[in-house]
Amino acid sequence: MSVHRPIAGRLVIATHNPGKLAEMRELLGRFGVEATSAGERGLPEPEETGTSFRENARIKAQAAAAASGLVAFADDSGLAVDALDGAPGIHSARWAGPAKDFRYAMEKIDGMLRERHAVTPAARRAHDGTLVWPPRGQKGFGYDPMFLPDGHTLTFGEMPSQDKHGLPPHGRGLSHRARAFLKLAEACLGG
Questions:
Q1: Where are the domains of the chain?
Q2: Which residues face 12 on adjacent strands?
Q3: pLDDT 10s digits, 23-76
């Protein structure tokens, strides 16, 4: 059995992504934790040299903690498409290019799926959902407009943030970030 020391006060979220920051602040808000971000503090973005989401999250959190002197946490996530052998995976943000143009990245994924004749919902599976075309909705960020979570009729781009990443009892906690955060909250925030 491991014992975790509760996180209290202020911490740094190891991200430069405003969408991810907004979601994490919303998740942390109910626990009274004040969060700043690596981007807001002007911290450099470390090179993500890991071969998994977990390794890249660790790299980002350790760099932010060392640079800020605060407790830090990070997540690393992306779109893992079955018909593309798990791509873009850990390279999801990079597929959007330096301009972070996710419309371009979504078009690239759709084009690659069409090249592989992956046009039916069953052939367009991604981890925990299906990819739709054309993208739908303006909410969220990244690949949200093309990601339809299992068992739902709205893409993450169409869903209110409360449904996507709000925590129970008020939200549905559908996103991977919300599900992971529930585990973090239980272990470190008094759940």
A1: 10-76+162-188, 82-159
A2: 36, 72
A3: 888 878 777 788 899 999 999 999 999 999 999 999 999 999 999 999 998 888
Candidates 76, 110, 144, 163; catalytic one? 76
In the numeric block, the tokens 């330096």 are attached to 98
Side-by-side strand order, sheet with 34-37: 34-37, 10-13, 71-73
Q: pLDDT per residue over 157-181, tens digit each?
A: 999 887 777 666 666 667 767 777 7
Whose structure tokens read 């925590």? 167
d(CA 9, CA 31): 10
Instruction: Please answer whether residues 102 and 143 qualify as being in contact, where contact means their C-beta atoms are separated by less than 8 angstroms.
Output: yes
Q: Which CATH number fits domain 82-159: 2.60.40.10, 3.40.50.620, 3.30.160.140, 3.90.950.10?
A: 3.90.950.10
Helix extents (H) in 1-154: 18-29, 53-68, 102-115
Strands (E), 2-96: 10-13, 34-37, 71-73
pTM, two decimal places: 0.81
- CATH number 3.40.50.620 given to 10-76+162-188: no
Spatial distance between the Cα atoms of 138 and 25, rounded to a whole number of angstroms: 20
Token pair listed for 179: 């599900």
Residue 163 annotated as catalytic = no
170: Cβ contacts below 8 Å, ≥ 6 apart: 162
